[in-house]
């Protein structure tokens, strides 16, 4: 039998995970990264005796592969990707590749915001209910690596639109769509419709025996569902409407109804407060109900769930000023939630790589809650233009240390300092985690 060959573009978490699984499944493998491969990943590739290259793509070699897995960071219109497609070579995501080698059922979670929190929430409830479950995708070890090394009954996967763009047959038993707001439009020809189509790929291979859980208050989702048919059974959640089957609010209680079974829990008992977290909890509770986890277990899990690092994470109180790390807010909508949840006057640290942001949505909240703005980015012109007239103080900075020191000078007793950038981090930081850690470090050094 001919040995299948796979070329892997990108030597990061998803690329190296795919290589480990491909090796186990007997593929001939070549890993190619246009940039530097981190030492920790090189060690893994050497250990598994997998061929790799960095700082270049050997095109002749890549164009002979029977299948190509590309990392989510590489755009679909990259010249090499277009050449591969022109030759009819399938270009897939790690999610597609790994799903072919596991019989575990999958819970796939996507959305512009809330997907990490919801993924961790669902995984936490499943573990508390003694269900054997791995968590992967954009969180933790890669899906492919876990499929190679573990035997789980279920996987909870956090899926970005880029990962969904690279699927052919991937089919989650339960799909969750938390919301859709303009994000990453630079990768979708600045078309919101293209981005929406991408998110809905999560349900494209689902059948009548599968489930689709979604936010019924989200205009973009509802408009798409009005015009398009899906096969999966729909389970909406909402803060405003009520359903025969789905999750809703009644007298400050979350109620989840599925086929005449009902789960309820007061929102005041949730460990994470705020409207957006109530929705994340509704989505997670709906999944838990589908898997028939004991109601007591679901309630206890929701009371003790700790949340996600870099998402409205309280760092320290200094001189009665609370410092909050929301570095994970890489788009306008996430920052909207953060500002909405602030209950004090706020010094807001914002900026980075703008993905086509429209800042006007934030104006009412900035007028109401923000006393000063500290820009943290290489190019802050758009932020200065959007908010220059709203606040008395707006300052430009180029490092986290400088931003935090200025915030310390401006913030007064009973106020807050909020890092919620509304932008990607790649101009000054390695990623949003690096940005959040530098913020926490700078705060602790005050």
Automatic annotation (TrEMBL):
**Where in or outside the cell is it found?**
Cytoplasm
Entry EC number(s): 6.3.2.9
What top-level class of enzyme does the UniProt entry assign?
Answer: ligase
* Keyword Ligase on entry: yes
Pfam assignment, any one: Mur_ligase_M
Role, per record: Cell wall formation. Catalyzes the addition of glutamate to the nucleotide precursor UDP-N-acetylmuramoyl-L-alanine (UMA).
Q: What is this protein called?
A: UDP-N-acetylmuramoylalanine--D-glutamate ligase
Gene name as annotated: murD
């Amino acid at each position: 039998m001919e040995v299948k060959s796979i070329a892997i573009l990108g030597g990061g978490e998803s690329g190296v995970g795919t290589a480990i699984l491909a090796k186990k499944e007997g593929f001939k493998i070549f890993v190619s990264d246009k940039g530097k491969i981190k030492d920790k990943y090189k060690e893994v590739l050497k250990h598994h005796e997998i061929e790799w290259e960095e700082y270049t793509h050997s095109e002749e070699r890549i164009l002979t592969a029977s299948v190509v897995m590309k990392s989510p960071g590489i755009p679909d219109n990259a010249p090499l990707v277009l050449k591969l497609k022109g030759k009819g070579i399938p270009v897939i995501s790690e999610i597609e590749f790994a799903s072919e080698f596991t019989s575990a059922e999958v819970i796939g979670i996507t959305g512009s915001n809330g997907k990490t929190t919801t993924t961790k929430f669902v995984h936490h409830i499943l573990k508390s209910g003694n269900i054997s479950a791995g968590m992967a995708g954009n969180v933790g070890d890669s899906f492919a690596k876990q499929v190679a090394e573990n035997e789980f009954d279920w996987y909870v996967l956090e899926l970005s639109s880029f990962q969904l763009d690279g699927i052919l047959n991937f089919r989650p038993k339960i799909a969750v769509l938390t919301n859709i707001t303009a994000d990453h439009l630079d990768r979708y020809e600045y078309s919101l419709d293209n981005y929406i189509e991408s998110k809905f790929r999560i349900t494209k291979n689902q059948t009548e025996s599968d489930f689709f859980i979604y936010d019924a208050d989200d205009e973009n989702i509802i408009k798409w569902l009005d015009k398009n048919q899906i096969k999966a059974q729909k389970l909406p959640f909402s803060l405003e409407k009520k359903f025969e089957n789905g999750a809703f609010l009644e007298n400050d209680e979350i109620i989840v109804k599925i086929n005449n079974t009902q789960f309820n829990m007061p929102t005041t008992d949730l460990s994470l407060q705020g409207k957006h977290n109530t929705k994340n909890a509704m989505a997670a509770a709906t999944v838990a109900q589908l898997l028939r986890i004991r109601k007591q277990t679901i309630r206890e899990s929701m009371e003790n769930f700790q949340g996600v690092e870099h998402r409205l994470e309280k760092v320290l109180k200094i001189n009665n000023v609370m410092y909050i790390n929301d570095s994970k807010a890489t788009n306008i909508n996430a920052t909207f939630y953060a500002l909405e949840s602030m209950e004090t006057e706020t010094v807001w640290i914002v900026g980075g790589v703008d993905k086509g942001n429209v800042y006007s949505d934030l104006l009412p909240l900035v007028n109401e809650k923000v006393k000063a703005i500290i820009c943290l980015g290489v190019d802050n012109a758009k932020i200065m233009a959007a908010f220059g007239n709203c606040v008395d103080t707006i300052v430009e900075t180029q490092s986290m240390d400088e931003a935090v020191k200025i915030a310390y000078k401006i913030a007064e007793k009973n106020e807050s300092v909020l890092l919620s950038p509304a932008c990607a981090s790649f101009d000054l930081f390695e990623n949003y985690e690096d940005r959040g850690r530098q913020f926490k470090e700078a705060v602790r050094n005050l």
